[in-house]
Every structure is written in structure tokens, then in C-alpha cells.
Write a structure and sequence with these properties.
Helices cover about 45% and strands about 15% of the residues. It has about 240 residues and is of the alpha/beta class. Helix 6 links the parallel strand 5 and strand 6. Bound molecules: pyridoxine-5'-phosphate (PXP).
Amino acid sequence: MTKLSVNINKIATLRNARGGNDPDVVKAAMRIEQFGAEGITVHPRPDERHIRRSDVYQLKEAVTTEFNIEGYPSEDFLRMVLEVKPHQVTLVPDPPEAITSNAGWDVITHQSMLREIVARLQSAGIRVSIFLNPQPELVEHAASTGTDRIELYTESYAVGFPSNPESAIQPFVATAEEAAKHGLGLNAGHDLSFRNLHYFASHIPNLLEVSIGHALVSDALFWGLENTVNLYKRELHRP
Ligand code: PXP
């Protein structure tokens, strides 16, 4: 069964707009778990424009499902995750000023750096996932970093899905098949939504986890958080 991990960055963005503690990020994470999500994802950035370092430490105490921390592996980021020890760290190559992640790793150029970081995290008992574009030829290079999983960067799927779902999904199926050959676990995320989630999950073999933030939190404004988490889970799991 594919796990739904909810990325709560947008809830922190709303809180930060007024400087107080509304909405409470930790309370939101706990509710999201109660409503059935199987994981909580955060993507702290150096400027703390949404999730703050202090949130990460508080969430570690509160989250009872899978805690996934995404980020660029600066020394600061690595120190934090090695202290917090979440279940999973997802390494993304985005520069600090990026609005959101906008590419997967160049696993050929950065192979030795990634290998060293993956080993450091794994020796602390943390599972590692590497954000990757849907290109099957990259999978063997990702595998040679020693990573446990890859997270497929799904933006191109989300963009192509409305006009041509078959062609939008094709590189993801090919990359997923290659990942299975190399024994890599498979996650996916970015721009997944209520509309495109079912088609994606039902076409990708061995999908272990999706992380969804923007669309889910936006839908929750209209549908309510509990209802939205349940609707996304239904889309993820219906045949
Ligand atoms: N995966 C990664 C690596 C991300 O950076 C993000 C956005 O923070 C997501 C998944 C979730 O994307 P979205 O907010 O579009 O659902």
C-alpha cells in the first residue's frame, strides 16, 4: 500500500504571515495523522520562510507516523537531521533561494558527494531517498550512491496529465521499472493533486510513498482537512 505523507510547509507559510502561532503546525500534523495520513513531510529552508528549525524539533516529539525531512544537504541541514533522526531524509538539490524544488539530482556529477552523505545518514539509522527526474538512465547512478529509495520528481507528469496522461506517465513507469531492477524503493512527489493522483498511483508499480503539500492544503480550505486527507487516500488506493 502506498503511504500518503502530507507536506505541511504551506501550513507554516500561513502561520508565518502573522507572526503568531496560528495555525499551529504541530497540532495540524497531529490532526493530519489522526485523519489517516501515514506520514508527515517538512522541507525546512535556510531562511525559515515556512518550516523553522524549531518546528522540526517539536515535530520530532509529536509525529507518531513516518517523519520525512527534505532538504539540500548543507552542513547545517545534515547536523540538524543527524540530531533529529527522522525516519527518512529526502535529499533535494535545490539552491536556498529556489521557491520550490525544481529539478532532480544530477547523480552523475554529484555521485561521490551523495555517496558520502547517504552513508553518513544511514549510519545514524536514517533511511535516505534521493530526488530524481524521471529518466531511467539515471537510476543505476542513483543506486551506486547507496541510497535506499528515489523520489520521482512528478512536476512534468502533473503538467502533461490533463492533455495526455499516457505520454505523461510513460517516463515514470520506465524509471520505476528500472528502480525495481536495482532494488531501490520508490517515492514520488511534487504537484500531485486530487485530480492526477489516482492515475499516477495506479500506473506506477511498487510505489511506496507519495508526499503531497500544496494541492492537499489548498483543497483543505474548501473541503476541510479531515475530508481532504480521506479523499486523497481514497484516490491513492482505489482500484
Ligand atoms: N517532494 C519534494 C522534494 C518537494 O520539494 C516538494 C515541495 O516542497 C514536494 C515533494 C511536495 O510538492 P507539492 O507541495 O507540490 O505537493
